[in-house]
Amino acid sequence: MKIAISGKGGVGKTTLAGCLARHLADQGQTVLAIDADPDSNLPSAVGVPPERLGEVQPLAAMKDLVAERTGAQPGTMGGMFKLNPKVDDIPDRFCLEHNGVKLLTLGTVPKGGGGCLCPESTLLRVLMRHLMVRRGETVIVDMEAGLEHLARGSTESMDAFVVVVEPGQRAIQTAHQIRRLASDLGIRRVMVVGNKIRDPEDQEVITKGVAPMQVLGHLRLRDSIRQADREGVSPYDLDPSLRDEVAGIYEALCRVAD
Ligand SMILES: Nc1ncnc2c1ncn2[C@@H]1O[C@H](COP(=O)(O)OP(=O)(O)O)[C@@H](O)[C@H]1O
Ligand SMILES: [Mg+2]
């Protein structure tokens, strides 16, 4: 299954992406977790220890790789480059594996509007397209709030498009905005996970607010997640009740995506 996770900044996308990746790896699936948010730290959420974080190199920042694959001359603006670079070996060669999860960090591409055609974004786009059709592998994409990755060609073939929402109108509005953008790209199946839930009222605010989007489940607001963040570990390792909630969300996802 190919799962994209999106939502307003700070709602818990990375937390959910990290926990889901761990859950699926524990179930024996081959999991590739893609950090597509330049302002994120998915490796930490998966449980990569601080001393190994230095091994994470964003693909877009690998100038030699970008130049080698696209034929672009480093340091020059414009110029010719290949629009169909070789990418099939990239996931295995450049991922960081931890707790059974393969992690790939995309990094930032120079801003140039939605249709940016620089060598870096071309490489990432072709890579994403390749990952979407690779068989036998679960892909979880932690996307940025700005929806840059909702570009044509990279997200249409997702099986599930999950928007994380916290109890509040701003996160709910962002979810509707994402649904509209997704629908423009032909993605119909956009689902919601509620996060930072304190009480049944919080759940109701989300369920009513995001309708007609379906709510897959909720994660409670909990100290263990803050504590994990403080200590630089995965909340998945600290809290069995969180693992149960994540498992429930994945079951609901499978029912809906079938
Ligand atoms: N259910 C929760 N309970 C407590 N803190 C949470 C919860 N979910 C997320 N957080 C905290 O909120 C902050 C933002 O979470 P994060 O997953 O990084 O969001 P995003 O990726 O959407 O920006 C982090 O400090 C995280 O530890
Ligand atoms: Mg994040």
Describe the structure in your own words.
It is a single chain. The chain has 258 residues and is α/β, with parallel strands linked by helices. It has one domain: P-loop containing nucleotide triphosphate hydrolases (Rossmann fold). The chain is 41% helix and 18% strand. It contains ten helices and eight strands. The chain has helices at residues 13-26, 42-46, 63-70, 90-94, 119-133, 169-184, 200-210, 223-231, 235-238, 240-257; strands at 2-6, 31-36, 96-98, 101-105, 138-143, 160-165, 190-197, 214-220. Strands 3-4-2-5-1-6-7-8 form an eight-stranded mixed sheet, with helices on both faces. α1 crosses α10 and α3 packs across α5 (119-133). The longest helix is centred in the C-terminal third of the chain and has 18 residues, at 240-257. It is globular and about 55 Å long. The mean pLDDT is 90. The protein binds adenosine-5'-diphosphate and magnesium ion (MG).
